[in-house]
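User: For a benchmark we're assembling, each entry needs the component sequences followed by a predicted structure for the full assembly. Here are entry 17's components. Please fill in the structure.
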Amino acid sequence: DVKVTQSSRYLVKRTGEKVFLECVQDMDHENMFWYRQDPGLGLRLIYFSYDVKMKEKGDIPEGYSVSREKKERFSLILESASTNQTSMYLCASSLSGDPSPGNTIYFGEGSWLTVV
Amino acid sequence: AQKITQTQPGMFVQEKEAVTLDCTYDTSDPSYGLFWYKQPSSGEMIFLIYQGSYDQQNATEGRYSLNFQKARKSANLVISASQLGDSAMYFCAMREGHYSGNTPLVFGKGTRLSVIA
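Assistant: Structure for entry 17:
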């Protein structure tokens, strides 16, 4: 089974802190994603990466950066956390290529971040 | 512009009845895939069913089926014989194909389904 592991399930951070959310996948997937989920807004894409050291901005990249130094690991960084970044963060991975039944996207369990 | 629209923020259904969750999408790419995910209160995202734009038949997976109407750009999820464990958030999502390059999944805002005993 594909496994996408997010390092922290629940975090509480102070405003202004630098926050790292780590994600590791074990299926040699090319693509990795970070989404943010808020009530009534669904999942919004922050950043994605289709290869090591490559990154693409999603719909809401402001206030975030990412790092992908190894294929299996994709990190989300909040340089200076703010209260409006309190949310649930979901990491995901998939194979590259055209959409197909076997090319679905697999999610981690989510990281609930509270910024106080 | 919204690429995925789910117009039902919340739905109720009686146990053992069928329910349809609506999803419309917008794309100009002839190649795309449509996905439905279930998210229980625990937060995990569970993949339910997939429909490709070139698929001739509607997708089915157990109690889940997808009512795919390509001309209307709709991909409604039908859950038959609802169970209490079906209570969750349901998300429709789309990934555009090779004409759009290596693209991520785009999600709708979700529908919260509550199954009543």
